[in-house]
């Protein structure tokens, strides 16, 4: 009789030995890669969303202290968008380097440079972690999913 909460299981090639479980409006759990096997064993408690796989695959570039990853976001067999991830490697406090990141992104993204991510607002002066990156990917994927929902037209 309880309404279910969504949990997204995510993987990142930068952290091949980790698995990330993001709960709807909640925390991000970081587990080892065998977490998927555990979820299969708990299938009586969790329902797998069929055909809901979304991923970003692309190329990783390094330019001096910046790491740039450009990927194609696919849902099933079709491309749905593009992801651009930029990291300034020497900095671990996200808010300390946001202006530098903006300036760097403007050199190749121009007017399409994003505004400050919501995860920065909650981090303040704390250390940025891989879970923060996964939260940002989840936000991107949810935006793409919502854009793909086509309103149903009524027939009279």
TrEMBL record:
The GO molecular function terms of this record are:
transcription coactivator activity
Q: Which UniProt keywords apply?
A: Activator, Nucleus, Transcription, Transcription regulation
Mind listing the GO biological process terms from this record?
Answer: regulation of transcription by RNA polymerase II
- Give one Pfam family, short name only: Med20
* One GO CC term on file: mediator complex
Q: Where in the cell is it found?
A: Nucleus
Question: What does this chain do?
Answer: Component of the Mediator complex, a coactivator involved in the regulated transcription of nearly all RNA polymerase II-dependent genes. Mediator functions as a bridge to convey information from gene-specific regulatory proteins to the basal RNA polymerase II transcription machinery. Mediator is recruited to promoters by direct interactions with regulatory proteins and serves as a scaffold for the assembly of a functional preinitiation complex with RNA polymerase II and the general transcription factors.
Kindly state the subunit structure of this protein: Component of the Mediator complex.
Family recorded in the similarity comment: Belongs to the Mediator complex subunit 20 family.
Record's protein name: Mediator of RNA polymerase II transcription subunit 20
Which organism's genome codes for this protein? Thalassarche chlororhynchos
């Amino acid at each position: 009789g309880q309404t279910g909460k969504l949990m997204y299981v995510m993987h990142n090639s930068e952290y091949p030995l980790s698995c990330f479980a993001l709960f709807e409006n909640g925390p991000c759990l970081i587990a080892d890669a065998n977490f998927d096997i555990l979820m299969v064993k708990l299938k009586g408690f969790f329902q797998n969303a069929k055909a809901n796989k979304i991923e970003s695959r692309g190329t990783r570039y390094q330019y001096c202290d910046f790491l740039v990853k450009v990927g194609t976001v696919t849902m099933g067999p079709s491309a749905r968008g593009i992801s651009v991830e930029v990291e300034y490697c020497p900095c671990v406090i996200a808010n300390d380097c946001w202006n530098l990141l903006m300036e760097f992104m403007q050199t190749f993204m121009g007017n399409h440079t994003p505004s400050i991510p919501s995860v920065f607002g909650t981090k303040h002066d704390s250390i940025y972690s891989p879970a923060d990156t996964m939260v940002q990917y989840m936000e991107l994927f949810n935006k793409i999913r919502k854009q793909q929902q086509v309103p149903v037209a009524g027939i009279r």
